[in-house]
Amino acid sequence: MSFLASTTEEIAPPGTGDLTVQVIEYDMGTTSTNGNHPVGRTAAFRISSVLADNSDTFHGMLKGGFRESKGESPILDEDTGITIASIEVWFRALHKTLTDDSYAVPIEELWYMIEVSCKYLFRLEKLEKWFKTYWVRLDQRNLEYDELRQLLYPCQAFDHPEAFAYVSRWLAHEGVGHMEEYNPTHYNHLHVQGRVIQQINAARGSMRIKIAAAIFDPLNNFCKTNCEAKEKSISAYIDGVKKTGIWPIKTQHRKSNKDVIDSPGFLN
Fold it and tell me: For the segment 220-249, what is each residue's pLDDT rounded down to a tens digit?
């Protein structure tokens, strides 16, 4: 095949590589006239038997009919949309040859790494240590709303409780409107397990109720007797609430709970 990679990336430690694997990535955003997706990228990786030791799929592939001595290289024809970047991280993690670039992949690639695990029967826990470092290096404070929605499932899949707690708490406190997870791939079988989305939205709604209570509960203690001062105080308090711009709170659906709490005049 003329479109196969002509240069090889060394994945295995020096002196241990004994096989070259070709990977073909397709452009899933483009469809040709015959209904197929064109080739987007290709890569060649020099690997070792470590892959066969970590995957029944690769064991059959690498220990079976393919033999580089015959001039043949296994070809991973990723027509299901798996990316070269996600495969490279897996290969490097298993060979213990991760680089700085391995921790700089886009968030979307996390989903493809999980799909690589499903397709090639790699145990996902093999990437848990990698993900811990990835999370630490991520610019967490500047993540956008959609990026955090993308991160929710990978945080759960890679079994990182701290990252999962950070993301879910942010979505409940700083998210706007009804929250749904964001799957950037076409792998519909990849999604958070359990009632996570429901619980995040419930937490957000519960916080709204508490905000409303915090606004009006003080009215119970303004004055214990019926007098002109009480009426004026209550009227002034309600006018003050209106001036904050957060009441009526039911109209604030385009604001996060954090934005409501941080509104001018809400706290001083």
Answer: 776 666 777 777 777 777 777 777 666 666
